[in-house]
Specification:
- The complex is a heterodimer of chains A (319) and B (286).
- Chain A contains 12 helices and 14 strands.
- By secondary structure, chain A is of the alpha/beta class.
- In chain A, the strands form 3 sheets. Chain A has a 7-stranded mixed β-sheet, sandwiched between helices. In chain A, strands 9-11-10-13-14 form a 5-stranded mixed β-sheet, sandwiched between helices.
- Chain A is globular, with a radius of gyration of 19 Å.
- Chain B is α/β, with parallel strands linked by helices.
- Chain B has a single domain, classed as 3-Layer(aba) Sandwich (Rossmann fold), CATH 3.40.50.970.
- Chain B has 10 helices and 7 strands.
- In chain B, strand 6, helix 9 and strand 7 form a beta-alpha-beta unit.
- In chain B, helix 1 packs antiparallel against helix 10 and helix 3 runs parallel beside helix 4.
- Classes of the chains: A alpha/beta (319), B alpha/beta (286).
- The interface between A and B is medium-sized, with 32 and 38 residues.
Chain lengths: 319, 286
């Protein structure tokens, strides 16, 4: 049942952002972009080349960038801000809260290099708290696509959604396995593969890890339902409840702290509507460190074997 | 257009509104509000080229952003007196279910407000964004912003100052309420602002000075500021105001930054401020 999920090659999700920004720039003249001295890292060159008057280089001044974006949005523009996820959230939390969320501004906060898979730059840059911070802000949508194609589609789709959006993506090349030119539906989880025994629910880069784990578990006769939650807020509660009412147990997986992440959102939903065993594949209250992406995922308990072990624990807890 | 005599009359009524809003809510910030009453009156009754009705996008009109949101009583009064919402609504200041939040907000849909403020240092950045949008839209109107002086201790202010000069945001006029006071005392005792004009000049801005509680000087300087726009540099107007201006016992001290008058004090203050346009109906006798 997992045969249809095919790795067509590796590309970075940040490249998907750059491609999507360029495409939506062509389609929507109200789209403008800002960057805090990370044009190359955010892959914004194509947009800047063709729409130089709609791009604003802000320099290393992220708080100012968020305020300027709020002002552009007030005047009817659709600003996309670009910097690392760390500097898109913790560094500017008060600006996001007051000038954007509370003021209901249509700003798209586009955040690269999220999570452990940032790699060698280490813990200062490996933000693992951003989903939690942003999902607490009223009105913000939180989106974390799983591969290049989906990030490109999401980057374009958020222009059509009125309201502040946090779009999270990453640095490394990563398997591409969702369709080109897909339609991205904000708030709609995707059941990538149907299964009966356990629901594996992941976001971002961890979706591929979960697919790999599901293949291995299938070899042991365990049938996994694999769900990609690319939108953490608003959470697609019905798709999750439909799955768990069938499988009776869950594993959540994300490149984020256990506190405040997708798993916490799912656990809260299940506690309210459908109490069920849940196991968390997430960073457990620690900072990361320098290393290669896959090494780091393994060290911090986010490797494919960790997902497999979590699935078995969840299965055991089913009564 | 109002002449100077009329503007002074309006400012007196705005000051009455400030005293009564803060008295009836037993909270709020009268000191800075009183000091800025002349500026807000000049802005809304003379300077801004504005549509009679509120439009969030501000297309085809001048726009104003308040950065030091705690002076909300003066802004609410000016907006109501300028016709953006019913004057009677001033009686709801800081009450439950009101559009007149303690610090200005868009959330309840109060006409005239385009962004929330209160947490300091953010307003100039937002004003820059609106000014950039005007350039993209070939809209020749201007964007104004007001900041406090203590607020200039926030780092974001100087991020914004650097950006505006670099990107030649020359359709922007920032005004500074330079009363020399902040919550914990005089600026010079808390954190000195140093040579403020030289700071702005060094950041690449055209710098104007004016007494902030003299209507004729204020109008003259704001007009001059308008003439300096469109020449490749952002403009800042340093307004020397006095916190509490217009009420003798509130002047010359930071004590009235965030303290509301009691009944006796409110009566004493209102006796110094002629009722020129008619008070809004209050819930009590003051």
């Amino acid at each position: 049942m997992l045969e249809h999920i095919i790795n067509t090659g590796s590309k970075a999700t940040r490249d998907g952002f750059g491609a999507g920004l360029y495409e939506i720039g062509k389609l929507n003249p109200e789209v403008v972009a800002l960057c805090a001295d990370l044009v190359g890292s955010l892959k914004m060159e194509a947009f800047i080349k063709d729409f130089p008057e709609r791009f604003f280089q802000v320099g290393i001044a992220e708080a100012n960038m968020m305020g300027i974006a709020a002002g552009l949005a007030t005047s009817g523009k659709i600003p996309y801000t670009g910097t690392f996820a760390n500097f898109s959230t913790g560094r500017v939390y008060d600006q996001l809260r007051q000038s954007i969320a509370y003021s209901d501004k249509n700003v798209k906060v586009c955040a690269s290099h999220a999570g452990l898979t940032l790699g060698e730059d280490g813990a200062t840059h490996q933000i693992l708290e951003d989903i939690g911070m942003i999902k607490m802000l009223p009105g913000f949508a939180v989106i974390c696509p799983c591969d290049y194609n989906q990030t490109k589609a999401a980057t374009m789709a958020i222009a059509e959604h009125y309201g502040p959006v946090y779009l999270r993506f990453g640095r490394p090349n990563w398997p591409v396995f969702t369709p080109e030119n897909q339609r991205f539906e904000i708030g709609k989880a995707q059941v990538l593969s149907a299964g009966a025994d356990v629901s594996l629910i992941a976001t971002g880069h961890m979706v591929w890890q979960v697919v790999e784990a599901a293949r291995a578990l299938a070899g042991e006769g365990i049938s996994c339902e694999v769900i990609n939650v690319h939108t953490i807020k608003p959470l697609d509660e019905e798709t999750i409840l439909d799955s768990v009412s069938k499988t009776k147990c869950v594993v959540s997986a994300e490149e984020h702290q256990r506190n405040g992440g997708l798993g916490e959102s799912i656990a809260g939903l299940l506690a309210r509507r459908l109490p069920s065993p849940i196991e968390f594949v997430a960073v457990n209250d620690s900072f990361g460190e320098s290393g290669k992406p896959l090494e780091l995922l393994d060290k911090y308990g986010l490797g494919v074997p960790d997902v497999i072990a979590a699935a078995k624990r969840a299965l055991q807890r089913k009564s | 257009m109002a002449d100077i005599t009329q503007l002074k009359e309006i400012a007196s009524q705005v000051r009455r509104d400030i005293i009564r809003q803060t008295y009836y809510s037993n909270s709020g910030h009268p000191g800075g509000s009183l000091g800025c009453a002349d500026f807000f009156t000049a802005l809304y009754f003379k300077v801004l080229r504005r549509h009679p009705h509120f439009d969030m996008t501000g297309k085809g009109e001048d726009m104003f952003f308040l950065s030091n949101g705690h002076v909300s009583p003066v802004w609410y009064s000016a907006l109501a007196r300028a016709g953006y919402f019913p004057i009677e609504e001033l009686a709801t200041f800081r009450q439950l279910h009101s559009r007149l939040q303690g610090h200005p907000a868009t959330h309840e849909g109060l006409p005239g407000i385009r962004v929330a403020s209160g947490s300091l240092g953010q307003g100039i950045s937002v004003a820059i964004g609106a000014a950039l949008a005007k350039k993209l839209d070939s809209d020749p109107h201007l964007v104004y912003a007001l900041t406090g002086d203590g607020e200039l201790q926030e780092g974001q202010i100087w991020e914004a100052a650097m950006f505006a000069a670099h990107h030649k945001v020359d359709n922007l006029i920032v005004t500074v309420d330079w009363n020399g006071q902040q919550i914990d005392g005089p600026n010079d005792e808390v954190i000195s602002l140093g040579n403020l004009p030289a700071k702005w000049e060094a950041f690449g801005w055209d710098v104007l000075h004016t007494p902030g509680n003299d209507m004729a000087s204020l109008l003259h300087t704001l007009q001059h500021a308008g003439e300096l726009t469109g020449k490749g540099r952002p403009v800042v107007v340093l307004m020397r105001t006095e916190m509490g201006f217009g009420v003798d016992f509130m002047m010359g001290s930071h004590k009235w930054h965030g303290v509301a008058p009691n009944k006796e004090q409110a009566i004493q203050a209102l006796a110094q401020l002629p009722e020129t346009l008619g008070d809004y109906p209050g819930p009590g006798e003051v």
